[in-house]
Design goal:
Blueprint: E1 2-3, H1 15-30, E2 47-53, H2 61-71, E3 76-82, H3 86-93, E4 98-103, E5 117-118, H4 120-125, E6 130-135, E7 141-146, H5 149-160, H6 164-168, E8 173-176, H7 180-193, E9 198-201, H8 205-218, E10 224-226, H9 230-235, E11 241-244, H10 254-268, E12 274-277, H11 287-294, E13 298-300, H12 302-318, H13 324-340
Parallel strand pairs: 2-3, 2-4, 5-7, 8-9, 8-11, 9-10, 11-12, 12-13
Antiparallel strand pairs: 1-10, 4-6, 6-7
Helix pairs in contact: 2-12, 2-13, 5-7, 5-12, 12-13
Pfam family, one: Shikimate_dh_N
InterPro entries: Aminoacid_DH-like_N_sf, NAD(P)-bd_dom_sf, Shikimate_DH-bd_N, Shikimate_DH_fam
Organism: Penicillium citrinum
């Protein structure tokens, strides 16, 4: 199955443009929804940010946000709330101390409906991973949902492989998976790397059909192709960028086994490129990363993406851009945890 239409060539983008202008655009565009809720005083005011998810006991977000909050000299608490109940989400948001939230599986689609508004990115992707607060002209605190997963994918690639902006243009890309992260990956690839088309490999055909139906409405120009069989995979031209979004479990069900075979066929092709795996548990060195490296692909691990996602969230909450030294400190902390406590990841 293919969704296709004319793909207009992009303007000449550079990594410097994306690093500087796009980062600041995240903050500037947020003020479309109202003014800053922050009151700047000589003594920093304590504020609350929450992580909402269904299975987050081992999440690394508190570690990363703790480092980034400390670097900005803020007295903010980042608290995990393990829930899938929208009512609990709304209760936390109603507190005047709450200035934002991080939203993870399986709440990325459902919790967005509880917010006052969504950014264009979130609307087009169909999933929310971040909320932030702005003050409307009538004084109401409004909660806005956005998606920084797409920014994390983009920035992780560009900070490691800045030449991939021009190298990826006009070549196929591929996304593995069919959930909210897969939607973010499709959006990021199409918006910033401009592939000729995007292949999708996934264990469930129904999820792929839902994605295609969604993007047919929100981004009619996107060209998507479902790689359903090993025969199709063998006949398909190699992509330049691949983004994996599935858990790092050994394939067991028929659909999972077929998806794994399709991915290996693609990775075996003589043309090589870059593979990004958004999964980082139980270890950033996932099976997909190992296979890609064995076949000669460049790779980026999920913790690199996670740090960039958290940086984008920080910009919206603290309303300041973390400097690169803080980002590198967060990355170093992740690598240390990975080295000394692999089970925690």
């Amino acid at each position: 199955m293919i969704i296709c239409s004319t793909h207009t060539p992009p303007p000449q983008l550079t990594s410097q443009y994306l690093f500087i202008d796009a980062v600041m655009d995240i903050l500037q565009q947020s003020y479309r929804y109202g003014k800053s809720p922050l009151i700047f005083t000589p003594t920093p005011v304590p504020r609350d940010v929450f992580l909402f998810g269904g299975n987050i006991s081992r999440s690394l977000s508190p570690l990363l946000h703790g480092i980034l909050f400390k670097s900005r000299n803020t007295r903010w608490a980042f608290t995990k709330v393990e829930t899938t109940y929208e009512s609990e989400f709304k209760t936390r948001l109603n507190s005047t101390a709450t200035t934002g939230a991080s939203i993870t599986m399986p709440n990325k689609v459902t919790f967005g409906k509880a917010l006052d508004d969504l950014t264009e990115d979130a609307r087009m992707i169909g999933a929310v991973n971040t909320s932030f607060v702005r003050v409307a002209p009538d004084g109401r605190r409004v909660h806005i949902g956005t998606n920084t997963d797409c920014v994390g994918i983009r920035d992780a690639i560009l900070h490691r492989h800045s030449s991939d902006i021009s190298a990826a243009y006009g070549k196929a890309a591929m996304v593995i998976g069919g959930g909210g992260a897969a939607r973010s990956a499709i959006y990021a690839l199409w918006k910033w790397f401009r592939p000729s088309e995007i292949y999708i490999a996934n264990r469930l055909k129904s999820e792929v059909e839902d994605i295609m139906s969604h993007f047919k409405t929100t981004i009619p120009s996107v060209r998507l192709r479902h790689i359903e069989t090993t025969i199709t995979a063998n006949r398909t031209k190699a992509p330049y960028i691949i983004v994996g979004t599935i858990p790092d479990y050994a394939p067991a069900q028929q659909g999972e086994i077929l998806c794994a075979r399709i991915c290996e066929i693609i990775l075996r092709k003589p043309e090589k490129g870059l593979l990004v795996d958004m999964c980082y548990m139980p270890s950033p060195q996932t099976n997909l990363i190992n296979i890609a490296q064995d076949y000669g692909w460049e790779t980026i691990v999920g913790t690199d993406v996670l740090v960039r996602v958290c940086v984008a969230q920080q910009i919206l909450w603290v309303e300041e851009e973390p400097n690169e030294m803080d980002v590198q400190q967060a990355l170093a902390a992740l690598r240390e945890v990975s080295r000394t406590e692999p089970a925690r990841l």
